[in-house]
Design brief:
This protein is mostly helical. Helices cover about 50% and strands about 5% of the residues. The structure holds acetyl coenzyme *A.
Length: about 425
């Protein structure tokens, strides 16, 4: 961490304390309050971590006001246009764009690991057919630590590396298997002559009776979805991965924890919730009723796919995703279905509505990704698994960075306790 000469002074009761201020390469200054409790005997209170930097990182930067997202310094729109997912994986993991030789070697390493242990099939069979794929993927990812014993020692850099490659390579296979299981079709093995996105589409949509020919436009759109979701600095699931990893848990267990966190509708589950909401709205004439509900303080309903904790101007991923959505819908000749009409009209109305403008609520990436995935033929239950698949590389990069950080400690937040103070136990007959 860069030692800066700037300090912040905090005065309370009879104390005056000084804390160092660090200047990041981008973003607001950070006050180092690690000595606050030792020197001042108080904690800070910040539920939701809205003002707390939990770690130092060099991976991803977001400027929410400018609508900027950088992976290792590269803007997301440039990567979405010029790069592809496996190159982005290399960038996130190792910090720089690969040379041609490095890229070829990395692609070969990932491709070699796409199959899962044959015995893992039995795990799938233990689930009900109607299990949510996120439940299956969380379980199977965690179970990988029971299969790959040679990559669970977190103190060994080689094992950390193998675990990373294994997870990036196998998560599409596991996700596609979860899907196939839910629709009662046989699992489709990966094909290593296909690119990452085409292979995933084929594992989802091929059947033994009929081969699947990946369409380059759909593969490209799929690859972009992976790229746009690959990392997003210290969001809820990434922080979960770091917190789980801070105890020394093995990498498969940590990523499983991240997948579980991602599932919630305020986070990765929003893409599924968004499409379900569009279907529930049903027809354009129903939109005003839902807009009114979203504004009503007494109604818990929120417009899914709108708003973001960090982006308060626009979500740069949404911009790219909107272009992709147009390409995919055009290719598939879908321009008039009712859900799409509702989506377009809702986007228009919300962007013009004073409530949404004043609260800086814009369509986020999930709003458009749901529309694309639906058009591609994925059921809504697969939307969040596809997000998890994409984010795996980000979680791993952040986990590896944390393990390599000498200042890393077990995560252990404090609390503002408001419960009962000490009282004596009362025997049941006396209560
Ligand atoms: N619809 C209606 N009102 C909303 C919405 C929404 N989608 N989002 C926020 N608001 C309102 C809140 O009611 C609040 O109003 P108030 O100031 O009058 O109390 C104000 O806007 C601020 O909202 P917060 O909840 O404080 O903002 P926060 O940063 O905590 O929440 C979140 C961000 C969780 C993403 C929220 O906007 C939301 O629930 N959106 C819908 C779910 C969604 O699309 N999530 C995907 C996030 S992107 C991703 O994970 C890839």
């Amino acid at each position: 961490m860069m030692a800066d000469k700037k300090t912040a002074t905090l005065s309370f009761a009879d104390k005056t304390l000084e804390f160092p201020i660090y200047s990041p390469t981008a973003g607001p200054d950070v006050i180092d309050i690690r000595k606050l409790y030792a020197d001042g005997g108080v904690f800070t209170y910040d539920p939701g971590f809205t003002s707390t930097a939990s770690c130092e990182s060099k991976i991803t930067f977001i400027d929410g006001d400018k609508g900027e997202l950088l992976y290792r310094g590269y803007p997301i729109d440039q990567l979405a246009e010029k790069s592809h997912f496996l190159e982005v994986c290399f960038l996130l993991l190792y910090g720089n764009l690969p040379s041609a030789v490095e890229l070829e070697d990395f692609e070969a390493r990932v491709t070699k690991h796409t199959m899962v242990h044959e015995q893992m099939m039995y795990f799938f069979r233990g689930f009900r057919r109607d299990a949510h794929p996120m439940a299956i993927i969380t379980g199977v990812m965690g179970a990988m630590s029971a299969f790959y014993h040679d990559s669970t020692d977190i103190t060994d850099p080689w094992q950390r590396e193998v675990a990373a490659i294994r997870m990036i390579a196998k998560v599409p296979t596991i996700s596609a298997m979860a899907y196939k299981y839910s629709v009662g079709q046989p699992f489709v093995y990966p094909r290593n002559d296909l690119d990452f996105a085409s292979n995933f589409l084929r594992m989802c949509f091929a059947v033994p009776a009929e081969e699947y020919e990946p369409n380059p436009i759909l593969s490209r759109a799929m690859d972009r979805i992976f790229t746009l979701h690959a990392d997003h600095e210290q969001n809820a699931s990434t922080s979960t991965v770091r917190l789980a990893g801070s105890s020394g848990a093995n990498p498969f267990a940590c990523i499983a924890a991240g997948i579980a966190c991602l599932w919630g509708p305020a986070h990765g589950g929003a893409n599924q919730a968004c499409l379900e909401m569009l279907r529930e709205i049903g027809t354009v004439d129903q939109i005003p009723e839902y807009i009114a509900r979203a504004k009503d303080k007494d109604d818990p309903f929120r417009l899914m796919g709108f708003g973001h904790r960090v982006y308060k101007n626009f979500d740069p991923r949404a911009k790219v995703m909107k272009e992709s959505a147009d390409e995919v819908l055009d290719l598939l000749g879908i321009d008039n279905n009712e859900t799409l009409k509702v989506a377009k009209e809702l986007e228009k109305i919300a962007l013009e509505d004073e409530y949404f403008i004043s609260k800086k609520l814009y369509p986020n990436v999930d709003f458009y990704s749901g529309v694309i995935l639906d058009a591609m033929g994925f059921p809504t239950s697969m939307f969040t698994p596809i997000f998890a698949l994409s984010r795996t590389v980000g979680w791993i990069s952040q986990w590896k960075e944390m393990i390599g950080d000498p200042t890393q400690k077990i995560g252990r937040p404090r609390q503002l306790y408001q419960g009962a103070t000490m009282r004596d136990y009362v025997d049941v007959e006396d209560r």
